[in-house]
Design goal:
Elements: H1 2-21, H2 41-46, H3 67-78, E1 82-89, E2 92-98, E3 108-109, H4 114-127, H5 152-156, H6 170-174, H7 179-184, H8 200-214, H9 218-227, E4 236-237, E5 251-253, H10 255-266, E6 270-271, E7 274-275, H11 279-285, E8 298-299, E9 304-308, E10 313-320, E11 324-329, E12 334-340, H12 347-360
Antiparallel strand pairs: 1-2, 1-12, 3-5, 4-5, 6-7, 8-9, 9-10, 10-11, 11-12
Helix pairs in contact: 4-8
Length: about 350
């Protein structure tokens, strides 16, 4: 009897194992088992991990730049507190410079160069219908400014007529409990559109408008529509005491991502075949919107505009305190990025760019 039971148990085990194995083929679907899917070659390829886009690199001589000019350039950078610099020519990185302790992954606060990024986000928001146009009155978002006559265009061009936050008021404003309330209570010093008065307060209003119009934080909106499409994985944005993104002074990028942003504008808002920023916004932002009576550059939509080199090549640039720059010279397919801790005259950067432009001509 024991022998019979052992034989029975053995046969039962074989039967169960055969049933389980059947779940691996199409016959097993009749008893609720899912067949194992065999990927075709094309499907298997699509499911392989995709590598992130990386900047292509090349020798300067292949893009018409004499290496001796770059050797001199590096020697000059050694003498000032430029921490990192990248030159892109014809969509290739052809030169990089780093002080000890810094590299392509180091994050730098852009200071006022943040304004150019915020301008791009405003253009995207208008394109997607969150904001009507640059002629939209600011009073539609802030009842405190309902009768001011200020429009988004005035904020973009620093012609709001409100007193600047970027003078003796800076520290008081930045240390205030509510940045927006401080701006709302600034004195009116001119009619909107009448005078250029550079003010981070104007850009902070733009950031607050974007957040109100989209229902998203500045960083969340930037991540979805700008940072993610360009692969800016380490970008960050500081906030004010109420959590509003500091679009005028608080965006952080590494120099490779700064160069990406310059390249996005060089290519009329396209990145790898995708239209990220509307082309007409890029054009309007980087051409003269307000001609200043003083200074070495005029203004677009949160971008500075001027010419460089003996041939007076049209150019535009993002500029931030202490030497944060993204220069774009479209005629030469040239982008020059600086991240610095330099508080001397900005004219030294005009000199650097003119030298590189001369090396290209």
């Amino acid at each position: 009897m024991r022998i019979i039971n052992k034989i029975f148990n053995f046969l039962l085990l074989i039967f169960l194992l055969a049933g389980l194995a059947g779940c691996a083929n199409s016959v097993a679907t009749e008893i609720g088992c899912q067949p194992v899917k065999q990927l075709k070659t094309a499907e298997a390829v699509l499911q392989k991990p995709q590598f992130a886009w990386q900047w292509p690199q090349d020798l300067p001589k292949n893009h018409g730049i004499n290496n001796a000019a770059l050797v001199r350039f590096h020697s000059e950078l050694d003498e000032v507190n430029v921490l990192a610099a990248v030159i892109v020519k014809d969509d290739y990185i052809i030169d990089e410079y780093y002080k000890p302790g810094y590299d392509k992954n180091s994050l730098f606060i852009l200071n006022s160069a943040s304004k150019s990024v915020t301008s791009a986000l405003i253009g995207i928001a208008i394109d997607k219908g969150y904001i009507d146009s640059v002629d939209t009155p600011v009073g539609e978002f802030f009842p405190q400014l309902e009768n001011s006559g200020i429009t988004i265009w005035h904020l973009l061009t620093h012609t709001s007529g409100l007193a600047s936050t970027d003078d003796v008021r800076w520290d008081v404003w930045r240390n205030s409990a509510n940045w927006l309330n401080y701006i709302f209570n600034l004195p009116v010093v001119a009619e909107p559109g009448a005078e250029f008065s550079y003010s981070t307060g104007n850009t902070h209003l733009l950031a607050a408008i974007l957040e109100q119009a989209t229902g998203m934080g500045l960083y969340d909106f930037a991540k979805e529509y700008l940072f993610a499409p360009l692969g800016m994985r380490t970008a960050r944005i500081d906030t004010d005491p109420q959590g509003i993104g500091d679009g005028g002074n608080g965006i952080w990028l590494n120099v490779y991502d700064m160069a990406k942003f310059g390249s996005l504008y060089l290519h009329n808002g396209q990145w790898q075949g995708r239209q990220v920023v509307p082309a007409d916004w890029v054009q309007a932002s980087t051409t003269l919107q307000y001609e200043r009576s003083t200074g070495s550059a005029d203004y677009g939509y949160q971008w500075w505009v001027r010419t460089f080199g003996e041939a007076r090549h049209p150019a535009y640039f993002a500029q931030g305190h202490a030497g944060q720059y993204i220069f774009v010279v479209p005629d030469l397919q040239l982008i020059i990025v600086f991240a610095s801790d330099y508080t001397g005259s900005s004219s030294i950067y005009w000199q650097f760019v003119n030298e590189i432009v001369a090396a290209c001509d």
